């Protein structure tokens, strides 16, 4: 079993902060966005990629990142799917249900992208066939799932903040994954996933801004979150598990 990167252990600690934010008035900041801020132009679409024809084995840190990101994307999918079901039963088709329900399919696509990476490099999949929601090989992710579900059930606002936290953590982790990556293919996959996470963060933060007047960053710098929220949605590419074309192996 691979050793899990130490940086990911902070996820459990971050989840505990949601309860404090909820208790302190919802964790929003009316100064989080400003009407005087000029939205940035939409970034160029993220280019899809495919497994290269010539494979260079990944380093152990690259392997650890790929395995972790496969499960981290499952965490997002499971939390959103399960909270959507919960709040649908409690309150009907309220905004948090619509937002999370819409994002679930995107998270499944993110999982599929990471599965394609594992297949490309001949790595074992930490997620078994038909694995139930909330089940993870990584014990920190298993605990985080439980914590986030508990927090997300306290209120609809808390559920939206759970979504925002997941996406902020995902963005930070993917940035780190790109720093570790030595392959153009994995770079492109991580960039596409990060693009999707920015869009998802816009959805969660946007709803909180509409209902509570602002969104306070939970992990990333506030300026970084503001720049994302104040810019348009992006067109994010995917990855393919078939084909032998794509970028040459190794970074250019």
Question: Please, could you describe this protein's structure?
Answer:
By secondary structure, this protein is mainly α. It has a domain at 59-125 and 134-240: Ferritin (Up-down Bundle). Helices cover 59% and strands 2% of the residues. It contains seven helices and two strands. It has helices spanning 10-23, 60-91, 95-120, 139-152, 156-180, 184-212, 222-229; strands at residues 49-50, 239-240. It has a two-stranded parallel sheet with strand order 1-2. Residues 1-7, 24-41 and 239-250 have low confidence and may be disordered.
Quick structural overview:
The chain has 252 residues and is mostly helical.
Quote the distance from N terminus to C terminus.
32 Å
Spatial arrangement of strands, main beta sheet: 1-2
- Tally the helices: 7
What is the CATH architecture descriptor of the domain at 59-125 and 134-240? Up-down Bundle
Topology:
Layout: H1 10-23, E1 49-50, H2 60-91, H3 95-120, H4 139-152, H5 156-180, H6 184-212, H7 222-229, E2 239-240
Parallel strand pairs: 1-2
Relevant terms:
single chain, 252 residues, mainly alpha, Ferritin, two-stranded parallel ribbon, 59% helix, globular, disordered N terminus
């Amino acid at each position: 079993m691979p050793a899990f990167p130490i940086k990911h252990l902070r996820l459990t600690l971050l989840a505990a902060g949601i309860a404090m934010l909820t208790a302190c008035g919802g964790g929003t900041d009316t100064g989080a966005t400003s009407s005087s801020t000029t939205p940035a132009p939409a970034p160029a679409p993220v280019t899809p990629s495919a497994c290269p024809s010539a494979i260079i084995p990944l380093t152990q840190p690259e392997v650890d990142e790929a395995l972790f990101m496969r499960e981290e994307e499952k965490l997002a999918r499971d939390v959103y799917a399960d909270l959507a079901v919960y709040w649908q039963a409690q309150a009907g088709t309220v905004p948090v249900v619509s937002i999370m329900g819409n994002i679930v399919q995107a998270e499944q696509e993110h999982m599929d992208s990471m599965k394609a990476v594992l297949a490309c490099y001949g790595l074992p999949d930490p997620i078994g066939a038909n694995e139930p929601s909330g089940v993870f090989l990584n014990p920190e992710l298993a605990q985080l799932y439980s914590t986030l579900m508990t927090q997300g059930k306290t209120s609809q606002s808390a559920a939206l903040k759970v979504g925002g936290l997941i996406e902020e953590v995902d963005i930070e982790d993917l940035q780190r994954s790109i720093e570790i990556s030595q392959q153009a293919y994995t770079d492109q996959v991580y960039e596409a996933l990060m693009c999707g996470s920015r869009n998802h963060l816009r959805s969660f933060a946007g709803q909180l801004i509409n209902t509570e007047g602002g969104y306070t960053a939970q992990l990333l710098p506030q300026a970084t979150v503001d720049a994302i929220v104040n810019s348009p949605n992006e067109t994010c590419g995917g990855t393919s598990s078939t084909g032998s074309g794509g970028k040459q192996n190794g970074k250019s």
